[in-house]
Amino acid sequence: MKLPYPHFLLLLLLGWAQGLTAQQNQLSGTITSDKAPIPLASLVLKSERGPAIIAYAYTNVDGNYTMSVDTNGVFQLIASAMGYRADTIMITLSGSTVQQDFRLMPGALQIRQITVKADRVIKEKKDTVIIDAQSFAEGNEDVVEDLLRKVPGLKVGGDGSISVDGQEVDRVLIEGDDLFEQGYRTLTQNLPAYPIKSVEILRNYSRNRLLKDIEDRQRVAINLTLQEKYQRVWSGNARLAYGARYSSGNSARSGASARPTSAN
Amino acid sequence: MMIRYKFATLILFIFSSFGVAQSSTGEAKGCVEYQSNEVSGRRILFFNETESLFVQSSTKLGAGERESGAKIEDGGIKMTVNVKDEDGNQYYRNFEEMSLTIRHAKASLPAYTYKDDWLTQDWAIKNKTREIGGMQVKKAVTEFRGNTFEVWFAPEVNLPYGPWKLFGLPGLIVEARDQKTGRMDYQLQSLHIPCPVAWPLETPTAAETKTLREHVDYRDNYSDHIHQHLISRLPPAAAARLSPMRSNAKSPRENNLEKIYAWETKEPTWDNK
Question: Which of B39, B189, B193 is closest, CB to CB, to A116?
């Protein structure tokens, strides 16, 4: 009786070696169209069904790609390139080196237009940047300050001070009225955010119109415009908030957040 | 026989011109416009099959032109830096040559270009999905030069392009943010194939060129360069009183998206730079 030791060992060794490589699948290949290689074609390996991307690669100038995959199973392999029709195959990986070439058919460049927001959310006039406030609102803003935090380009400090591109804001106006002077925090920390229509950044702001181009220092101010339905109502409320400037934050807030119906 | 020969030449001619047309550069096939937290001007990513070019702070794309210079006020000197010019900041990637060229726009000091290294970005694709502009987009994160970048990309637009220096995902980057400075905040505004904006898709140019290391050194010492520039423009008496400026930043790269380069071990501070 002969013991098949050597064979057994060899088998063991083979099995072990295979076990080692089982996690690493090496995929490679060339993507061509009419024999010419396609550079920058994308290869995306997705789970058998479902959108999860397992691995991806792009071809180089010679149309070659390599992809390492550390899970085994059945996958979709999608090859596509700009100006070509995409090709999808199903592929089974089980710890192996796989060569998978694609030949793509030319397809019309996919014409598409996507516009996330029809209107430009940020408009620029000479010295003024107008930002559509509600397009940045996420619905969880309580007061103006919360809304300003979400407007790109504006920074609200821990103490409530506001700066635009690093420059501190001088004044915050409402519909062009400077009700709070430098104590604008009373306004921004108390006025509810929902009536605000747009945030205007006035780059070359001067308190005196006649001095606008004479004053040396460039001041930055923010003007808040209100949605039409709140405009008439606002003046009454603003006075309330203004009057509450010297009292506690809470009462100022309750004054400022009076609903339009109660003010009417 | 002669006719055949002519025919063959004709075919050859057609083929070669086709070949040229295919690999022709200089023309954008599509473009993406982003909104950003930098308040002025448009920022657009132009692309074709093998090139991408991201442009911002260009007056041609509506960036406001502001005067640059120094004014004396309240006993101090206030300087305004004009960071905009016609061609603006440009980031050009050529995927065939694997080259990345950046044009640094005029910022009081002249514009220049530099060639950056082609560094691959290892993206971790997250399982998060949301919808932007009717497209299903996925989240991905990468570390690049000591900063963390979080992006959303659109797998259905199978192009490896993105704003700034970001690239290499299996889909166009439609939103991008950085963690360290918070200055990067690009959001898709529109995507157009073909592109309605005319812009040459080619290697950007400027009168000056720098190496990557020269560029980094220049940026780290930017306030010194500006100081020199001001001295040369002020009357001698005023220039003599002008002491070197220190920017408000805590470190030379506080506001830079790139923190650490390959030849460094940590981000420089004002003291050890």
Answer: B189
Alpha helices in chain A (DSSP H): 5-21, 144-150, 185-188, 228-243, 249-256, 260-263
Task: Report how many Cβ contacts below 8 Å link chain A to chain B.
Answer: 105
Q: What is the value of ipTM here, to two decimals?
A: 0.75
Residues B45, B52: contact at Cβ < 8 Å? yes
Place of tokens 């005023």: B238
> CB distance from A217 to chain B under 8 Å?
yes
Dihedral, A194, A200, A202, A205 alpha carbons, nearest 10: -40
Cβ neighbors of A53 (< 8 A, separation 6 or more) are A44, A45, A46, B125, B138, B155, B170
A153 has a chain B CB within 8 A of its CB: yes
CA-to-CA distance for B134 and A50, rounded, in angstroms? 18
Give the A window 165-184 contacts with B, CB below 8 Å.
Answer: 165-166
Query: How far is it, in rounded angstroms, from Cα B123 to Cα B52?
Result: 19
Instruction: Establish if A218 touches chain B: CB-CB under 8 angstroms.
Output: yes
What's chain A's Rg over C-alpha atoms? Answer: 32
Q: Are B181 and B255 in contact (CB under 8 A)?
A: yes
Look at B158 and A218 and tell me if their CB atoms are within 8 Å. no
Contact at CB, A40 and B38, closer than 8 angstroms: no
Question: What is the pLDDT tens value at each position of chain B, 273 positions in all?
Answer: 444 554 444 444 433 333 333 444 578 989 999 987 665 578 999 999 899 999 988 888 876 555 445 555 555 555 555 555 788 899 999 999 999 999 998 877 889 999 999 999 999 999 888 888 888 999 999 999 999 999 999 998 889 999 999 999 999 999 999 999 888 889 898 999 889 999 999 999 999 999 999 999 998 988 788 778 777 877 777 777 766 666 566 788 988 999 999 999 999 887 765
Chain A residues touching B41 at Cβ < 8 A: 124
Chain B CB within 8 Å of residue A149 CB: no
Nearest to B96 among A39, A114, A153 (CB): A39
